[in-house]
Automatic annotation (TrEMBL):
This is Secreted protein (Por secretion system target). Residues 1-25 form the signal peptide. It comes from the Bacteria. Keywords: Signal.
């Protein structure tokens, strides 16, 4: 091999190595900045806490839909603080199935929770006996 071939080979190997390092570093940056979320019911009530973390510079939206995919509520998460926490009260909703979704800017669902509201009616029947 001549010197020019060896130099070209060394340059090519170096470029491949640097490319892999850049890819690895960008993957680390992406995983470190992944949006994290949690949706939790509050004590068997019709309230749900929604937490979102690592929202800085990401567009994140919280969407509530019914069983027919009709949008009930949409709320954009403020990216200034990097975190979001809110309690949603669903006591005014009619009986039915609903879904809370935390969605990222790429329309990827980060977290989802489906719940059903059922009204339980208790009927008490009393007997009154007339006395004569």
């Amino acid at each position: 091999m001549n010197k020019n071939t060896i130099k070209a080979f060394i340059v090519a190997v170096t470029m491949v190595c640097l490319s892999n390092v850049n890819t690895f570093a960008s993957n680390l940056d992406e995983s470190a900045s992944l949006v994290k979320s949690k949706i939790a019911q509050v004590n068997n009530s019709l309230n749900f806490n929604v937490w979102v973390d690592n929202v800085a510079s990401k567009k994140v939206v919280i969407v509530v839909t019914d069983a027919d995919k009709n949008e009930i509520h949409r709320e954009y998460v403020d990216t200034k603080g990097g975190k979001f926490a809110k309690t949603f009260d669903f006591s005014s909703l009619a009986d039915g199935k609903y879904t809370i979704e935390v969605i990222s800017q790429n329309v990827n669902v980060i977290e989802s929770k489906t719940f059903e509201i059922k009204t339980n009616l208790i009927t008490n029947r009393d007997v009154v006996v007339a006395t004569r």
